[in-house]
Every structure is written in structure tokens, then in C-alpha cells.
Specification:
Elements: E1 2-11, E2 14-23, H1 35-55, H2 57-64, E3 70-73, H3 82-93, H4 102-110, E4 115-123, E5 127-134, E6 139-141, E7 145-147, E8 153-154, E9 167-169, H5 175-189, E10 196-201, E11 207-211, E12 215-220, H6 224-236, H7 240-243, E13 246-250, E14 256-261, E15 268-271
Parallel strand pairs: 3-5, 6-9, 9-10, 12-13
Antiparallel strand pairs: 1-2, 4-5, 6-7, 7-8, 10-11, 11-12, 13-14, 14-15
Helix pairs in contact: 3-4, 5-6
Length: about 270
């Protein structure tokens, strides 16, 4: 039997009635949806979703795992051709988004001589982003190769077009040593304004330089930096008209410098 019961509560501003509805004595009404009923509804919902996915799995999978068809270029390139990069990616584009071979693309790109490092990232639903670090050619190495700033060799096509770069040569596997010496010599020569166009290391460890394209300097094997600094001090103390005639410099003397000028009679030895 349902009956209403009123409770009164006294407050500072008066008396208020609080009505509560009870069913059969003092027991409150049960909630409309019980826990078991809610769990049953969730089960039916999940079962329906699973059946729906099973019946349409091929269409859903095709929608979610779309083929990668767009390439997003994250940075600018100086040496790389965009069409060439796309051709390297072509064998990988035929697969879906989740089966796209990121590691394979990275490896294929980094085999290109002008690519030092490549970053490849998938972007859902159908794109891939590329961030490529190009090689920086610092010098030529031998006849057909180039060196980057770390002394690493790479061999792109058309090396002849980089003839303006300094020419470095040396025995096999000496490129790191030659590049390091090239950078040190550049620092020593910088105050004079002389350009180091060529650096050659012989199989016996002797160094030879080409400065300003027509000045040849023989340094020898020992005390290379000290000999070059001695030459810089001597060069700075000479008249410009005289130094312009210098063609051959021999620094292999222990206490002097031998100079051959364009005019043969000016050949002399300068003693420190």
C-alpha cells in the first residue's frame, strides 16, 4: 500500500515540510533500471556492434586502412629532385596505411647519395610526411667523389659541376684526416685572405697545398701547423705586389722559407 509521509524540519526562518514517498511501510521505491538490466543492455549493444563489424568488416577495413597516396614534404631541398624522391617511394605506395613500410622507405631514401638522413612519418588516413637532411658538399675527394663536413665520402652524379670546391686527395681511408687538416689550415690562413683550393697528402705523409689557385706550398711531414703559421707571419709582412708574384713556397726548411716567384730572378730564401 502506497502512502505519503511528511517530515517537518525546523530552520532559522521557519518550518519546512519534507515529503518522502514510501511503498508498503518504510521501504523506498526501487530504481527504474537495475544494475543487471544495464549490464544486459551493454551486452546487447556490444554484440550488435560486433555483428555489424563482422558483416561489414571488408568495407570498414578498406576505409580505415586506406592506401597511402599523398606525400607531404616537410622541408626544402637544394640538391634533390622531387620527382626522383617520388620514384623512390613508388614501390611502397601500393600498400595500406597500417602496412606502409616506414623502415623500408627510410632505408631506400638514405641510399641516395645526396641524402644524409631521412625521417618518415605516417599521417592518417592516407599521407606520409618526409623530412630529409641533405649532404653538404665541402670539398672534392679525388676525381669522382665529394666530402661532407664530417669527412664522409659520397658519390653523386655530375661531380664535374662542383669543380669550384676545394680539391682534397690522399691515400685510401685518409679522408677524415685530410678533412680535419683542411679545416685547421683554413683557420690559420683566414687572416691572410688566402684561399685554400687544394690539399694533398702523399702516401709518405707529406702535405702540399694550393692557394689562390696558382700558389703551391710544400709543407712536408712534421710540425705542419707551426710551419704554416710561420708562412702566415712572413706573408703578412710582405708587399701585396710582391706576394701576387709568389708561385711556389717551400716550408720544409727548419729555419726558413724558400720562395719562387713568377719572375725567376726574384727567387729567394727568407730566413726567420
Amino acid at each position: 500500500m502506497m502512502r505519503a509521509k511528511a517530515r517537518f524540519k525546523s530552520t532559522g526562518s521557519g518550518v519546512h515540510a519534507n515529503h518522502s514517498l514510501f511503498l508498503g511501510g518504510n521501504r523506498p521505491l526501487k530504481p527504474r533500471y537495475s544494475r543487471k538490466r544495464i549490464q544486459l543492455l551493454w551486452f546487447v549493444l556490444l554484440l550488435s556492434t560486433g555483428l555489424l563489424f563482422q558483416q561489414n568488416s571488408q568495407g570498414i577495413t578498406s576505409y580505415v586502412n586506406r592506401p597511402v597516396v599523398k606525400i607531404r614534404i616537410e622541408n626544402q631541398w637544394q640538391q634533390l629532385d622531387e620527382a626522383e624522391v617520388k620514384s623512390l617511394l613508388a614501390p611502397f605506395i601500393i600498400t595500406g596505411f597500417f602496412t606502409f613500410d616506414v623502415a623500408g622507405v627510410k632505408q631506400a631514401l638514405e641510399q641516395h647519395p645526396w641524402i644524409a638522413m631521412a625521417s618518415v612519418k605516417r599521417i592518417w588516413p592516407d599521407s606520409v610526411a618526409l623530412n630529409i637532411t641533405e649532404q653538404i658538399a665541402i670539398a672534392r675527394w679525388g676525381d669522382r667523389q665529394l666530402l661532407n663536413q664530417y669527412g664522409e665520402i659520397f658519390e653523386p652524379h655530375g661531380v664535374d659541376q662542383y669543380a669550384a670546391l676545394p680539391w682534397l686527395t690522399g691515400p685510401n681511408d685518409s679522408q677524415y684526416q685530410v678533412m680535419e687538416q683542411y679545416q685547421l689550415m683554413n683557420q690559420i690562413l683566414f687572416p691572410t685572405g688566402l684561399r685554400l683550393n687544394g690539399l694533398f697528402l702523399s702516401s709518405r705523409g707529406s702535405w702540399n697545398l694550393t692557394l689562390n689557385e696558382n700558389m703551391h706550398v710544400s709543407v712536408g711531414r712534421g710540425e705542419v701547423d707551426e710551419k704554416l703559421q710561420r708562412f702566415v707571419r712572413f706573408y703578412d709582412g710582405q708587399d701585396v705586389l710582391q706576394t701576387e708574384r709568389f708561385r711556389s713556397i717551400d716550408l720544409r726548411y727548419g729555419n726558413g722559407i724558400a720562395i719562387a716567384s713568377a719572375v725567376k730572378e726574384l727567387t729567394s730564401v727568407a730566413i726567420r
